[in-house]
Structure formats: C-alpha cells, structure tokens
Amino acid sequence: MSRPAGMLDDDALDLDALWLPFTHNRLYKKAPRLVERAEGMYYTTPDGRRLLDGLSGLWCCNAGHRHPRIVEAVKAQLDELDYAVAFQVHHPQAFRLAGALAARAPGDLNHVFFAGSGSEACDTALKIALAYHKARGEGGRFRLIGRELGYHGVGFGGIAVGGMANNRKAFAGAMLPGVDHLRHTRDLEHMAFSRGQPEWGAELAEDLERLVALHDASTIAAVIVEPMQGSAGVIVPPVGYLERLREICTRHGILLIFDEVITGFGRLGHWFAAERFGVQPDIVTFAKGVTSGVVPLGGVIVSAAVHEAFMHGPEHLVELFHGYTYSGHPLACAAGLAALEVYEHENLFAAARRLEVSLERAVHALRDEPNVIDVRNLGLAAAIELAPRPGAPSMRGLEVFQHCFERGVMVRYTGDTIALGPACVASLGEIEAMVEAVRDGIRAAP
Ligand SMILES: Cc1ncc(COP(=O)(O)O)c(C=O)c1O
User: Fold this and answer.
1) The predicted structure's pLDDT at residue 10
2) Ligand 1 centroid, distance to 121 Cα (angstroms)
3) From residue 397, how far is each of 260, 362, 376 by CA, in Å?
4) How many Å apart are CA 440 and CA 369, to the nearest integer?
5) How does DSSP assign 242-308, residue by residue?
6) pLDDT value of position 47
7) CA 368 to ligand 1 centroid distance, Å
8) pLDDT in the model for residue 9
9) Which residues contact 118 (CB under 8 A, 6 or more apart)?
10) Pocket of ligand 1 contains residue 119 by CB under 6 Å
11) Which residue from 26, 225, 242, 306 puts its CA 20 to 30 A from 202's CA?
C-alpha cells in the first residue's frame, strides 16, 4: 500500500521527535514496538504479525477494535458536523449521548458533564465536589480524600488524590492542599489468591473514620476511589468494603465519587461498577469504554441533588466555571452513541459475565508457576503478581511483557504485576491463549 505524500515509510521512521507517555523512551527506541492496524481482538504490526490484544487497547476497546457500527457512526458524523462550539451553543448528539448515559447510570445519577479524557473527568469531579459544598454554604469542606495506590489520571487534582508514588514524587511541591489518603486494600497475607472479591477486609473502610476524626467531617468535601483499582494491578474491593465507605460518607455529609474510568462499560459485566456492587455514589467518572476507545471522551455523571445545588441564582449567570473546548466533541458523541448501541444490541455485558468465569479459572491456574505471589480477578480484569527479582524490581514484569509480545499477545505490566483486560468480544480460546502466553512468559523470567 502506498503512503500519502509526506509520510515516512517504516525504514525511515524517525523515532526521535516523539516523547512517549509512561514509557522508558531510551530503551523503547532501541527496539520499538509498533502496531499499525487493528480489528476485533487483534492488532497487526507493520511487519504483518498479528497480536492478540489482552488489554482492550488500554482498558478501553471493550467492544473490540474498529467495531464496524462505531466506525460507521464516526464517519457519518464527520460528513455532518466536525466541531461545534461547546460553550453557550452545542449540538444535538451531545444531548442524545447525555440522555443515553443518564438513562443507564444507576439510581439518580442523571446529569452528565463531558470532558475529553479520564484525567479531565477526575479533575472535573473533584471541582464539582468542592463547588457543590460552596454552593450550599459549606465552603469549609475543602478537603479531598483519595486512597493509596489509587490512580485518577495525571492532572494536578488527579495526582494529588491519587496514591501512586512514582506519579507524585516529581510534583510533590505542587500537590493540592488539604488532601489525605485512605489506606489501600491490597493485603497478600489475608487475601492472596482470592477469586473475585476477597472475603476479608471490609473493616479497612473504617480508615475513613480515622480521617474524619483527624480532620473533622466539616472540612471534608469528597472521597474518591476506583471501585476496583485498575492501574495499580486489579485490586478488588473486599466484600462489604464499598458499602461501609458509602455508609460513612452518608453519615458525615461527604460526597462519594467512584472513578469508573476503567470499571464502566462492561469491564465488570455492567454499565457501571456501582450497579455490580449495589453501592450508589454521588458522582461517577467515565472515559475509555464509553466510545470503546474509538474517539477520546470522558466525563462525570452527578446525582440529581448535586446538580440541583448549582441551579440557583440569576439565570443569565454561568453556574460552573469549568469546561473544555472538546467537551462533548461531535465525533466522540457519535462514537459513544454507537458504542452504547453495540453493547446493548450484542448483549456484550452478558458475554462479559460469562467470560469472567473462564478468565477466573484460567488465571488462577497460574498459581503454582514460579514466583507467583498473588492472582486477582474481577469481571474482565485479572492480575498476576510476581515476586520482584532481588535488586531488580520491575524486571520480571518487563520480561514477561516482552515475552508475550514476541509470542503474539499484548498484556500490560505495572512493576512486577501482569494485567489482563480482554474485550467483551473475546472468545474462550483467546482468553486461554492470553493466559498461556503469560504462563510461558513467567517461566521464561526466572
Ligand atoms: C481509574 C482511572 N482514572 C483516570 C484515568 C485517566 O484516564 P486518561 O488516561 O484517559 O486521562 C485512568 C486511566 O487509566 C484510570 O484508570
């Protein structure tokens, strides 16, 4: 296939100008890994190799890559409207998608604010929480509580409430004031090799009472947690934990924010994790799977009560001084509407719930492989944690990742934890192929 004028061919591909995100750039550029095409469960590399995608892109292509219905909708949208001014004007597709999301969100979560990514969604949620209390005359509630090992994107709000040391340490001097963290719920002594939700650990939620006692509830605006922690390596909430967090937040007038950027849109077999766990947050964030990764989109859905608190004062005044040029971009909304339709018409969440059983069985069969210290899973998410090699943390994880890639399977690694997050359209054979590649990789990384 000839390339458009001005594009370099692969032999001449200049790697220098691009600084890759969350990547060891110098090592990468010595042996770059590229994919050029994708369809369904597979990528194709520039040299024509097929790669089974074990991570739905980056936890986002939940309906598989390039689903024809979504691709078609984006193309059709492009023929109608490329961009519409987001402030004071807007376009019908954004209203349609907001309505469709509100109808599918649990309980009274029924007002949608669009952003462009998960990071923007998180910062939006935190700002809404602070502004909500101020609007109700409780501006003294300025504290935000996150959780250790939490990941809420890379904006300044997100890294402040986030709890991953590497994402914070270079920016320590620029953290938001008044942020504190719950302790995390990863405890290998009590929970290693739990299938699904660990039975032990609901009481870890009482840590919120410690922070309330320390700071006083009257200073705390919101608690933000991922219902299941994804980026830190699939840390599954203990049975009863989220329920306890909800109770404590309600008792103290603190908003509960679920960051559902990974857990939404089928990852846990439902539209939202809130539905799966039967716990109602005041605000959810979303991104990734909302468009099945086809066009970037993020946002938050807030409860009727949160929204209502803003809708006072003179009508000609802006209620929330926040928003993005690309809030509700027409292409993203078209992709989102089509993705929702695909999830529903193809019963993909029911498929995810069936596949969950197979994924669980397959990953837990890795328990006795060398250096495996934990296996965790929930929905279409699983992690295999390896003991770090003495003196070389993360090396085993990297080697397993490289081995899988060479064997034709894309997995993710964070430190020495390998994560799998197949799309809802995966077959049983594909799930098994992913797990077998990981098994080989573990054996090849002594
Ligand atoms: C829970 C959570 N929140 C926020 C984000 C950030 O999303 P984005 O990378 O689209 O900014 C992520 C990304 O993985 C995430 O997992």
Assistant:
1) 55
2) 9
3) 26, 19, 16
4) 10
5) HHHHHHHHHHHT-EEEEE-TTTTTTTTSSS-HHHHHT---SEEEE-GGGGTTSS--EEEEEEHHHHH
6) 94
7) 32
8) 53
9) 152, 153, 259, 261, 285, 287, 288, 298
10) yes
11) 306
Residue 404: alpha-carbon gap to chain centroid: 23
Q: Is 57 in the pocket of ligand 1 (CB under 6 A)?
A: no
Cα 59 to middle of ligand 1, angstroms: 9
Give the bridge partners for 180, in sequence order. Answer: 145
DSSP-based three-state secondary structure for 120: helix
Query: Which residue's alpha carbon is at the smallest distance from atom 7 of ligand 1?
Result: 118
Half-sphere exposure of 162 (CA within 13 A, CB side): 26
Closest residue by Cα to residue 130 from 252, 283, 242, 325: 283
Question: Based on the number of CB atoms within 10 Å of its own CB, is 406 exposed (0-12), middle (13-18) or buried (19 or more)?
Answer: middle
Instruction: Pull the structure tokens for residue 286.
Output: 């979303």
Pairing relationship of beta strands 50-53 and 42-44 according to DSSP bridges: antiparallel
H or E segment at 299? strand 298-303
> Is residue 152 within 6 Å of ligand 1 at its C-beta?
yes
d(C-alpha 296, C-alpha 158), whole Å: 18
> Six-digit token pair at 24?
């060891």
Separation of CA 290 and ligand 1 centre (Å) = 13
- Contact status, residue 109 vs residue 102, Cβ threshold 8 Å: yes
- Asked whether 380 and 359 are in contact (CB, 8 A), the reply is yes
> What is the predicted pLDDT for the residue at 147?
98
The answer to whether 220 touches 143, Cβ cutoff 8 Å, is yes
Pairing of strands 42-44, 37-39: antiparallel
Point out the residues of the chain with pLDDT beneath 50: 1-8
Residues in the chain: 446
pLDDT at position 426 is: 98
**Phi, psi (rounded to 5 degrees) for 309:** -60, -25
Which sequence spans correspond to the domains of the chain? 10-63+347-443, 70-345
Token pair listed for 69: 């219905």
Same fold, 10-63+347-443 and 70-345: no
For the domain made up of 70-345, the CATH class stated in words is: alpha beta
CA quadruple 66, 260, 230, 172: dihedral sign: positive
261 lines ligand 1 (CB under 6 A): yes
Closest of 254, 260, 225, 354 to residue 59, by C-alpha:
260
- Spell out the residues 6+ positions from residue 271 whose beta carbon is closer than 8 angstroms to its own: 104, 105, 106, 264, 265, 349
CATH number of 10-63+347-443: 3.90.1150.10
